[in-house]
Design a protein that fits this description.
This protein is of the alpha+beta class and 664 residues long. Among the domains are: 336-481, Isoleucyl-tRNA Synthetase, Domain 1; 508-663, Beta Barrel (OB fold (Dihydrolipoamide Acetyltransferase, E2P)), CATH 2.40.50.140. Helix content is 37%, strand content 20%. It contains 22 helices and 29 strands. Strands 15, 16, 17, 18, 21, 24, 25, 26 and 27 form a 9-stranded antiparallel β-sheet that branches. Strands 3-2-1-11-12-7 form a 6-stranded parallel β-sheet, with helices on both faces. The protein has a 4-stranded antiparallel β-sheet with strand order 5-4-6-8. Helix 10 links the parallel strand 11 and strand 12 (283-286). Helix 11 (306-313) packs across helix 12. The radius of gyration is 30 Å and the shape is flat. The structure holds 5'-O-[(L-methionyl)-sulphamoyl]adenosine.
């Protein structure tokens, strides 16, 4: 019998920065789906990769003093490592700089040209470099990018166009005939309305930069990033002639984030229609994560690194959280507190506890062996009905309702815990009801085995651990989800607890309230030769600060400077004068320098990249002394390797101090 095939893709990610939790979300969801279909015995091809061309990469490389290729080569391993850490089982990792891909794109453009769908014209419009997207005058919001709100630049140049307008009707017909294509359903109407509103032809080349695939019809042009990126889904399979293309295309699901839905549900299918290639069966646009209520971004300093989460909590816990916390397709909010709460309740208390108690009772009452009961008793078990969730689960997975799928499994797990509380095996033991006790323990062990099978796409390592404690092999298939397969008499192998309780670790740096303040006035301390009394402005309020930098700075060198202060340091008196905070200075033993933030408003918060700010009401001087902030060789100020910054600028020392100077 020919195996059913399943082809799933993620977006190919831009390589301008390392992957974050948003990228991890999409890739993890795709991995869970890929594993689920493999569990069902299907032949799966799971693709992810990186999108490496374009002006943004070219500019970032230039800033870093690298060639574009050097720049992308340095970042790609960060994606590959992250996927390894998260236990991702992609069958291929495509890079748009792969020769095979570049050849494929050129071939693809030739086909579209043959269909009469490319013509030369003049492009006039607005371009947002960070988003790699062109906008018409009408689309701008207050003259800025409608997506990110940043500045756009005016572009007017020769360009080749793709006749997107020609595909308005065919697209609308296609949506009608294939209602599953636009998923989830709540995002479908928006696309349909926009397409009904009319389609403009799409500019598909640029002549203003050269980091891209040369446009085969005119070597002065490079291919616009999306016309380069979208075909990755077929070039990865060796289109046009590749064996994998014949076998796996069309894609069963393109998994993407909602912000690139238009490209995948309008432009990509139109491109495929033009090239006379079958259309994908489904495009599923998932929602976006914010972080503690805010949009995630480098300038906010709240980018969540999935590798750090994996290191602190384990890959399976992170995978579980991402897919359980928010219904797939909706937006959600990430917080480490929410992750810890899930680990402690769902993973440690529900699943972990069930395993530990069940195995402990098996050891205590049955010498560590699966109780001997008859086939008839196995089939009559009360838990059998509860374990029968496969069909329901399959339908949830089919519609990519991961959170609901996990809820089904957890209802079952919780039911097992309740069963223990109701049946009270310890009482059965006391009353000498050995038969009932055997039936109960067998049922619990068998339930755990089935839960491990069903949860395996989500938590592959923990699933294998449960199975190994039941002395079973970790490799399973959907057929193993049938009740009654656990052999009586098997010796179990109780091991470590499955999930340790997690604790929210607070980084001491989070407690600091660092802000920019402007030095308004400086006076000598009347009773101390080495101290100044500074009056500083903190955006609305003023403070008095006593500081020991008098040896190093003349008064006039300080007045008017905007520098970094700790605002929540416990007030203290120095020779009778109160200090309400402290000015930070880097000290290498010889030289001393204050920390400048010259381009920001007084009162602006200073943070370390990637560390959220949760200032305590007050911190002591000793607490502050334990936080090591140092200066690097370029004069940047760092905590734990993370630069101190405000949204718009990085903090630097005002004067040159040696590398490694301590900030105090
Ligand atoms: N290179 C294009 C895609 C080309 S596909 C032919 C691109 N890359 S990207 O690096 O910006 O990655 C976009 C994807 O990352 C989103 O579609 C989404 O899957 C994921 N996410 C990025 N930020 C996200 C959140 N804050 N939350 C959830 N997912 C997000 O666009």
């Amino acid at each position: 019998m020919v195996k059913k095939k399943f082809y799933i893709t993620t977006p190919i990610y831009y390589v301008n920065a390392p992957p974050h939790i948003g990228h991890a979300y999409c890739t993890t969801a795709a991995d869970v789906l890929a594993r689920w279909h493999r569990l069902k015995g299907e032949d799966v091809f799971f693709l992810t990769g990186t999108d490496e061309h374009g002006e943004k990469v070219q500019e970032a490389a230039k800033r870093g003093g690298k060639t574009p290729k050097e720049f992308v080569d340095a970042l790609v391993p960060k994606f590959k490592d992250t996927w390894q850490n998260l236990n991702i089982t992609n069958n291929k990792f495509i890079r748009t700089t792969d020769t095979e891909h570049e050849k494929g794109v050129i071939e693809f453009i030739k086909k579209v040209n043959k269909a009469g769908d490319i013509y030369k014209g003049m492009y006039e419009g607005w371009y947002c470099v960070p988003d790699e997207t062109f906008f018409t005058e009408l689309q701008l919001v207050n003259g800025k990018c409608p997506v990110c709100g940043r500045d756009v630049k005016k572009v007017k140049e020769d360009s080749y166009f793709f006749r997107l307008s020609k595909y308005q009707k065919p697209l609308l017909e296609f949506y009608k005939k294939n209602p599953e294509f636009l998923s989830p359903a709540h995002r479908a109407q928006e696309i349909i309305n926009r397409v009904e509103g009319g389609l403009h032809d799409l500019s598909i080349t640029r002549a203003s930069f050269n980091w891209g695939i040369p446009f085969p019809l005119d070597k002065k042009h490079v291919t616009y990033v999306w016309f380069d990126a979208l075909p990755n889904y077929i070039t990865a399979l060796g289109w046009p002639k590749g064996k994998d293309f014949k076998k796996f295309w069309p894609a069963d699901v393109h998994l993407i984030g909602k912000e690139i839905n238009w490209f995948h549900t309008v432009i990509w299918p139109a491109m495929l229609m033009s090239a006379k290639i079958k259309l994908p069966k489904k495009v599923f646009a998932h929602g976006w994560w914010t972080v503690e209520g805010e949009k995630m971004g480098k300038s906010r300093g709240n980018v969540v690194d999935p590798n750090v989460l994996v290191q602190n909590y384990g890959a399976d816990a992170v995978r579980y959280f991402l897919l359980r916390e928010v219904p797939f397709g909706m937006d959600g909010d990430f917080s480490e507190a929410a992750l810890v709460a899930r680990i402690n309740s769902d993973l440690a208390d529900d699943l972990g506890n069930l395993l530990m108690r069940t195995l402990a009772m098996t050891e205590k009452y049955f010498e560590g062996k699966v109780p001997e009961i008859s086939k008839k008793e196995i089939n009559a078990s009360e838990l059998r009905k509860q374990a029968d969730i496969l069909d329901a689960l399959d339908s949830k997975m089919d519609s990519l309702e991961f959170s609901e799928a996990l809820q089904l499994i957890w209802n079952f797990v919780r039911h097992c815990n309740k069963y223990i509380a109701d049946v009270k095996p310890w009482e059965l033991q006391k009353q000498g009801k050995k038969k009932e006790l055997a039936v109960a323990i067998y049922g619990l062990l068998e339930s755990l085995r089935i839960a491990a099978v069903l949860v395996s796409p989500f938590m592959p390592s923990k699933s294998a651990e449960i199975l190994s404690q039941l002395s079973l092999p970790g490799k399973v298939s959907i057929k193993d989800a049938k009740w009654g397969m656990l052999k009586p008499g098997t010796k179990i192998a109780k091991g470590d607890i499955l999930f340790k309780k997690a604790e929210l670790k607070q980084d001491p740096f989070e407690k600091l309230d660092l802000r920019v303040a402007k030095i308004a006035d400086v006076k000598e301390h009347p009773d101390a030769d080495r101290l100044y009394i500074l009056q500083v402005e903190l955006g609305g309020s003023r403070r008095q600060i006593v500081s020991g930098i008098r040896e190093y700075y003349k008064k006039e060198e300080l007045v008017g400077k905007k520098a970094v202060f700790i605002c929540n340091l416990k007030p203290a008196k120095f020779r009778g004068i109160e200090s309400q905070g402290m000015i930070l200075a880097a000290d290498d033993g010889k030289n001393l320098s204050i920390l400048l933030a010259q381009n920001s408003e007084p009162g602006t918060s200073v943070f370390a990249e990637g560390i959220s700010r949760k200032p305590a009401a007050q911190i002591t001087f000793d607490e502050f002394q334990n936080i090591q902030i140092i200066v690097d060789k370029d004069g940047f100020v760092k905590y734990n390797g993370k630069k101190l910054r405000i949204q718009s600028e990085e903090i630097r020392t005002e004067r040159k101090v040696n590398e490694g100077a301590r900030v105090r």
